[in-house]
Design a protein that fits this description.
Length: 180
Amino acid sequence: MVKKQLIETSLIQLMETYHFREITIKMICTEAQINRSTFYAYFDGKYALLDSLIDSHIMQLEVILNEDFANLHLTKDKRPSVKKYLTHTIEYIYEHRQFFRVLLTLHPAQNFTQKLLSNWRTNYMKVLETSATLQYPDYFVSYTIGGQYGVLYFWLQNDCPEPPEVISTIIYNNILKINR
């Protein structure tokens, strides 16, 4: 594992036990078994480290969106693309569940939650822009995001007992009002 990833992993592991404000650079360095100069070669401080982690995950979610919705404007039926996007998103969250569980349920980071919800809002609005018009799309998207966040929160809080495919199907069905 490269040192930057080791530092990032160490912060998340420490956040399993401590609130972010309690964590010091010394604690991160001890957990990562590196010296302070190595830490500062990658990050200006613990806030820069956390911001870097958050931005990295948000950027990866954007990559998933761009790949899954690349030809969305060319298709009449958007449902397969939405299903694929949800599946890939939940799989990504599952692969990085320690990070998401820590920052969404154990020690919620307002900065991260706001960026994640903003990302989802933008993504849903992109889908709606290329499909039939709703009378109040902002309210539909807010409702959808709230439910999606609730499902994700519950799933992460309970240590992801169901596989990602089940969670993405639950969210997808709720969007389509199937099997509520």
